[in-house]
């Protein structure tokens, strides 16, 4: 039985985390935290009376095995620091911390032998896609990355697509050769990362799909992950919960566990 | 039984045309033509003794139902003109004629009531893909086109992809709305045709695939054609052979028959 | 401006219909109906005070342009009959009516010149997929159907997949030839409808995807629709709303409008 | 520079092997072997005069670094034995040897410290697909396998598809749970291997595609390899050539190198 405190419990991801915990007999919710709430009655949030609601960090004296944080960037560092100092293993999905902040937290966790994880993406299929792309890159000289997202997404390409191209480049060790005779007046060949082309498709109906395609003489290899519901992150969060219980350092990235 | 003369019979496509004719009991090869050959012995080309080999247009006096032309741009116009004037229905896959030349040939064919077809692409799946994209465009405000070709291809996007975008635009009747907040520093969003994005992927292992993707709230529709062997053109050529036998005008584009 | 009454307004689909109407300036919600509710206060259901809540058919005297029904099978016939008799054009997504009942309603609507539609599936991409499959079937001798659904789905294949196979068979006019030498000890070749193989995939992560694949020498054509959110049905409902305003008969199937 | 003898040089695969060697400056063809040929003149087979043509094993006294065998099952064992005994590293794509024969050859190669490989499939993308499927299986409880081949293929499912299901089952360690309420009157759910469903699609236009699909809450992961030309095997053969030069045992399966 793993006891948990959920930070950012009123947000969309926080609510999915609560649902996951409540559906899992191995997990027990003991507290929730959000500095913006004023009502501290559990029933207001459809929580059992045994769950304590907090709006100030220093009032959280109950202890727990894990600290699940899907809140806002502004509080991420302080929350994680608080958790480590109180021996509560942090599982952090909140973005916005600097590399320096993360390094400081890692040092603190190491000193106190507290296991934990900070991850930008808890999607298991996305992490596996990147991992397999990295492995495949050794056997193919040519790769392209295609990602498909809803038309409201502002940034192109997606962070996962760019990261996938980086992992492929690192594995290949050199720029991919282009076709010097190619003519592309419209820019249809897409974005370029060391010769690896990246294509971003934006259409309503997609949630988030990421695809790496490798080509060699007479064959192609495609690794594609498709997200239809952000609840998919809960698979990765669950994996992380088990992992941090047996670790004694703060790791960065779900790929470290897979 | 349809009797045929094949122009450009020594080329790659010409050879596939010969193979198709020989495998089809409804078709009979009576002559072949190539101004570059010097040896006029059928056996030299593994042809039956009844097949006549020509290297000059004005020596072709045998008559036939159809003239299949998969030769070189320089001879396309003269060949087609010759066929029409001799009442041999032209089925022309050779590219390179100007619009003016095509118009002149159409006028000639109409005068003489000779059926025929000039097509840049005899791929049935490609023509159907374009047709369906055009139909779907009425029901979706958002579409993107993706094409996949081998890495030796020089032009991007493919003619079929650009043509598909044009057909979608024509059917929608207005530019597709973009996302004004989109940030795309690498050009990953691809080529643009009136708001319809076009993505060209170039990898060894692909022959020629073309894809139109439509998106609406909660759903996508994908129409994809994939070519694994250029022999696929023979399906369209066969379709054209039957069609020209019952027509009395020169049509342009396989889509006119489908 | 189209005024609407929504029957089955408390259900999942009914709620999506309400959301669609509220987001569309061309549509106006005037009433909602559900025989199971006891509280007739609009505010209870987050409805504007101008919207009337009904729990008995004979109390609905307000009149409206359209009657949107996404309720339960038991009430579908009576509801549709009531709407037609009161000159309210029915748009019926509720299943469960017999062919005899539908025929009776069609006769009634024709007599009264009331436009309407009964459809099992308001997914535009699904209807287009079926339509395109039917058109493509004329040009290919070989087709297979693949559908992908979540692992809780009980019936295999899906109704849409079976219907797609039927449409392909109708268009081809004869059984597809099989491979007499084929050996398939595990039944991996899937279900069979007149030689058209149907494959049902059941995995968590899929919502509902349907795919028709056609093959010819050296080429394939794939038509695939993918549903990521059941809200996709609203596109088809919206299309139907406009259509029934200008019709004077009760049609069956969204494909009649596309 | 690796010197090579090619056994089965007149067959389709043998010809592709010759072409690969001739195009690679690191490889040198020194001999070819086929017990069925009677003409031993290199020019007859478009080979350089320095290449020796053999039709009897015991006349091959020239020595070489590697023995490439893509011949017929009847000679595979004797050929491989001959190669090992003469210190020529075997790269064997010829099928038909029994497990006992392979074990005997492995023992012989180990004794003599001769590197070599016997592989049923030299397709790099297929081997990677299987490897990734095996890795992904640890993170997903649900997987299905789909394979697409030309309609002349006799066996369903393909050996690769069945092998992929086996690897997934081995990695998961238990049967996948089914849906006890599922109704499948047509057998559309396909073949079954310990709960992993296998679907075989047979259509002209496909060469050989293999796909593993994994599903979890809200996400899917698809690993697909596609073969458009059997020349793809040469990538794996080339990989094997380098590998056997630095090994001193006979390995079985390209996956041992990847």
Automatic annotation (TrEMBL), chains A, B, C, D:
Q: Which residues of this UniProt protein bind (S)-2,3,4,5-tetrahydrodipicolinate?
A: 150, 159-160
Q: Which gene is the coding source of this polypeptide chain?
A: dapB
Describe, as the record does, how this protein assembles with itself and its partners: Homotetramer.
Location within or outside the cell? Cytoplasm
The UniProt record lists the keyword NAD: yes
Q: Record's family? A: Belongs to the DapB family.
Source species of the chain = Levilactobacillus zymae
In UniProt terms, what function does this protein have? Catalyzes the conversion of 4-hydroxy-tetrahydrodipicolinate (HTPA) to tetrahydrodipicolinate.
Domain Dihydrodipicolinate reductase N-terminal stretches:
3-122
Named in its record, the pathway it takes part in is:
Amino-acid biosynthesis; L-lysine biosynthesis via DAP pathway; (S)-tetrahydrodipicolinate from L-aspartate: step 4/4
Name by which UniProt lists this protein: 4-hydroxy-tetrahydrodipicolinate reductase
Instruction: Name the top EC class.
Output: oxidoreductase
Q: Upper taxonomic classification of the species?
A: Bacteria, Bacillati, Bacillota, Bacilli, Lactobacillales
